[in-house]
Fold:
Amino acid sequence: MNVRDELKDDRARRARFGRRALAGFAIMLALVMVVAGRFVYLQVFQHTEYSTRAKANRVRLKHLPPPRGLIYDAAGKLLADNVPAFRLDVVPDKVEHMHAMLRQLSAVVPLTDDDIRRFQQSLKQHRPFDAVPLKFRLTESERDSFAINQWRFPGVSVAPYLTRNYPYGAAFAHVIGYVGRIDEREEQRLDPDRYAGSTHIGKTGLEKEYENLLHGTPGYEVVEVNANQRPLRVLQRVAAKPGKNLYLTIDERLQHAAIAALDGQTGAAVAIDPRNGNVLAMVTIPSFDPNLFVNGISQADYTALLDNPEKPLLNRAMRGGYPPGSTIKPFLGLGGLELGLRKPADTVLSTGTYYIPGSSRGYRDDTRHGAGRVNLMQAITQSVNTYFYSLAYQMGIKRFDEWMGKFGFGKPTGIDLPDETGGVLPSPEWKRKTFKQPWYPGETVISGIGQGYWMVTPLQMAHALAALAGNGQSHTPHLLAATSDGLGAPEVPYPQPKPVQITHDPADLAAVKQGMLGVVYSPQGTAYASGIGKGFPYLIAGKTGTAERYSRTTDAYNTNKNLAYLASRHRAWFTAYAPADHPQIAVAVVLEHGAWGGSAAAPIARKILDQWLADTPPSERPPITVTAHAAPAAASGTTTAPTTP
Structure:
């Protein structure tokens, strides 16, 4: 190659290099411009968004659940409290292998199968970056053990919280109810803002009924965290607003007196103030410990409650349906007077068996040969079936239903508790709808003594009795008396519905009440032998009831020689109010296994009245009438109730 060729080739190489260098420079310049443009875009146009994201990595918003409102009885005793406790929280986003973590953590803090099952359910209800409770109510040793090993479990921490506590346990379980962990179905219907950070909600009783009052308003904290998301300082705090405190009409001492009086017997007792509908006591036996449910009941404990043949979870006071037996006789007798079918002095001949006109089937009295000729007061005192058989038949089922319905039978009372049942007020429509069968006259007859298809709750019975005792004025029974804002503000009376007047003639009520006095004080009275009126400073008016669970299979009459058999087939009732001339308390007691209302249930009511008297300051007691109160004339003559001191 000559010199000219070498020079030409050198110029070509330099030209290629220059073009390549220029292209490289252009590419580099373009890349720089892209980076610069992106930088300008991020720093100028997207500054707000990324600044917010940066701050979000530096701070955490922590929801503060509100303290739940407290619940007090009428005397200011605490029935539902909040106590400090600690729990294990897990943030799912920070845990790489959840199953492995739970297995390792179980060796440090014991976790039951129930803990893990509930935690896995809760994972579905929370966002990945939210703390999910794993185990509640850690013991001191469990907290210490975890603190030593916390470095091994990123995303797991111990958090303080307030947990619900019921100091009186089973005594108020069916009234107060309990709170429990929010489940998936509840999560979907709850306001996410109002329940932010909350883990529990009212499940039963007053806790459920007044959830809106008790829950409160959540607060929040803005917390600065480091690269490991550990809190450094609180930048901003808005305190949660506690729920309202509830003040009840119920009295703790009267409640415990009723429990003691029932003495473990399966049944219920309800006491109401006839003047205003205040529920003074409401007891169901057996009961259960509501504290078991607060942070999740174990499967073993829940199975034990479900398998218990006495059904402790059943609120017998407002969901237990029982035939009322003879306790409905005063209401039926009053209906005969109010509807103009009978006068107090009208008599009916009781021979031991009643026959519907034109029928050969007989309906028996409790005494073999009957009580002779009796008027209304004697019929109530001695609980003469024939009088009420004939009155129910004369009244007819339509008027019977309309009248009894006025006292609240056959429908919920409207008490401020959830899930109340309405019982059964027998009627042709009800039977046709339930059994697709017609109504027969004999069913009207037995309805007159509280048998047949009747089903009444103890709350309904106490409510009806309170209306009768309160001169025919029916108040809706209620448990909530007042509220406060949880910060110590003065109590605010809770509004109650206006009462409804049922009866209109005081003389009609007086005749029925006189018969109920005779139940307690006349030697022919069905509760006289129990002696419940002795030693009590006020007159007690009452009515016994012995309702059959199934009919007799022989012609034999009941005797005290077969009490065990009778207890297996009878529901024993007793209803009473006092003082008879200034009623302040109406009580209904039912036993599921009671031979006789007078001997089994009446003494229980007397013990409740004794406690009511002990709880009532002398300044609040009505004046004691210093005159003799005539009891109704018995079949063999006239008796007089003891003169009160």
Residues 3-45 form one domain.
